[in-house]
TrEMBL record:
TM spans (from-to): 7-27, 33-52, 59-76, 82-101
UniProt domain Cell wall-active antibiotics response LiaF-like C-terminal: residue ranges: 147-210
Boundaries of every LiaF transmembrane domain copy: 9-106
Stated name of the protein: Cell wall-active antibiotics response LiaF-like C-terminal domain-containing protein
Keyword set, alphabetical order: Membrane, Transmembrane, Transmembrane helix
PANTHER family: MEMBRANE PROTEIN, MEMBRANE PROTEIN-RELATED
Family matches, as Pfam families: LiaF-like_C (PF09922), LiaF-TM (PF22570)
N-terminal signal peptide: none
Length: 228
């Protein structure tokens, strides 16, 4: 349900932007996307969605703090030299808190290792913010997944997963990269929203009617997704 809510937030965001520009056409308002610090939203929003989908962890909390500090800096709410000096101590404080309160800042993934993690319902949820994850499933029945990267990377290996029905994997890649490895006994269908990014489907196409289909829905903003 939390993963679905994250998708709803992304959808509403794009709808709001589209309505804003449409209103400009009819002279209803003066909508401007590129305000001071607009680019920091590509850090702030995914971090908030990550918190909703996967809970608060060290990665998304650090990303959110950095995004907010950069937004404040871009709008001149505080002197620039103060903001630049706050970023590093803020990271140290958050890392220290995560060590002291490991039960409060939960993380389902470890950096740069193969991690066999699937929810009880067979749903995979991966969030990579300013880091990298290598996730390999082994003999689990997969029902779908959600992958979010922000200035990070994810390798999701499904070669040894059990996929016996159609599944959907929703991918959001912002200034990041995602590689998805699928077994040979599935069909792959890709749909994407590329914004200065792209999706590549290099998986072998079997097109057997009896094979399940892996649907990859990707949103790429200065990022890339590759299915192999």
């Amino acid at each position: 349900m939390r993963n679905k809510f994250g998708d709803i937030l992304w959808g509403l965001g794009f709808i709001a932007i589209g309505v804003g520009f449409a209103g400009n056409t009819f002279g209803l308002w003066d909508f401007r996307l590129f305000f001071n610090g607009w680019w920091t939203l590509f850090i702030i929003i995914p971090c908030i969605i990550s918190m909703i989908q996967s809970g608060v962890n060290t990665g998304n909390l650090i990303g959110l703090v950095i995004g907010v500090l950069l937004f404040i800096n871009s709008n001149g709410f505080l002197p620039r030299h103060i903001i630049s000096k706050l970023i590093f101590p803020s990271i140290l404080i958050l890392v220290g808190l995560s060590i002291l309160f490991k039960g409060s800042f939960k993380s389902n993934y470890k950096v740069n290792i193969h991690k066999n993690y699937v929810g009880k319902d067979g749903y995979i949820s991966i969030t990579s913010i300013f880091t990298g994850h290598e996730v390999r499933t082994v003999s689990e029945n997969i029902t779908g997944g959600a992958v979010t990267t922000v200035f990070g990377g994810v390798d999701l290996d499904l070669n040894n997963a059990i996929i016996n029905k159609n599944i959907t994997i929703n991918v959001t890649s912002i200034f990041g990269g995602v590689n998805i490895f699928v077994p040979s006994n599935v069909n792959v269908k890709v749909s994407s929203i590329p914004i200065f990014g792209g999706v590549s489907n290099k998986a072998s196409q079997s097109d057997f009617i009896n094979y399940p289909t892996v649907y990859v829905n990707a949103t790429c903003i200065f990022g890339g997704v590759e299915v192999k």
